[in-house]
Design brief:
The chain is of the alpha/beta class and 182 residues long. Helices cover 40% and strands 23% of the residues. The protein contains 4 helices and 5 strands; from the N terminus they run αβααββββα. It has a 5-stranded mixed beta sheet. Strand 3 and strand 4 form a beta hairpin. Helix 3 runs parallel beside helix 4. The radius of gyration is 18 Å and the shape is globular.
């Protein structure tokens, strides 16, 4: 019985994997090109977990929670500015000030990040992106949990590069522009 359950699980996984992988590269079917006022949420890198794992912000010994909070704030700030200037040009982007800031009132679109996980061992960032209509507080589209990975860098630079890839994904979704453009 146990063997049959394992076989059935592996068969379902085998059948569903190509569909889930194909969905990763697709743009959502919702047209967001006319949404000009965008509230960009906070990417919560969970400084508590980074301290627990004893990782350093600068590659030396382990860093304090205060140092990780500063790094998280800096990475979010750079990410938000890059989205405004490079990935969402011509849009008015309001950015969250911290992980508790979710006040998207007065905007056409709220971009929320969830399921954020920093894989310290492999220097990878995983997250989901949710596109929410602030007027109805309903999700209109999403990018399922995806891994963003940057190679050959120190930990903080890798996170910067990975957030840059998240920005490119936002550009594809919101601006409806192909990856190679701009």
């Amino acid at each position: 019985m146990k063997r049959m359950a394992v076989t059935a699980f592996l068969l379902l996984l085998y059948i569903s994997l190509p569909f889930s992988l194909a969905a990763r590269g697709k743009k959502s079917s919702v047209d967001m090109t006319k949404m000009n006022h965008i509230f960009l949420g906070w990417v919560d890198l969970n400084p508590d977990a980074l301290v627990i794992y004893g990782h350093s912000t600068l590659g030396g010994g382990s860093s304090s929670k205060a140092e990780w909070i500063e790094v998280e704030s800096s990475l979010n700030s750079v990410f938000q500015r890059t989205c405004q200037s490079k990935y969402l040009p011509g849009r008015t982007v309001t950015a969250a000030k911290d992980k508790w800031d979710e006040n998207a009132a007065g905007n056409d679109l709220y971009v929320k990040f969830s399921d954020v996980f920093v894989d310290i061992g492999k220097y990878r960032l995983r997250l989901s992106i949710h596109f929410i209509d602030p007027r109805t507080n309903s999700e209109i589209a999403s990018v399922p949990l995806q891994t963003y990975s940057e190679r050959a860098c120190d930990f903080v630079d890798c996170l910067r590069g990975e957030l840059d890839k998240v920005g490119k994904k936002l550009q594809v979704e919101v601006m409806a522009e192909p990856k190679g453009k701009k």
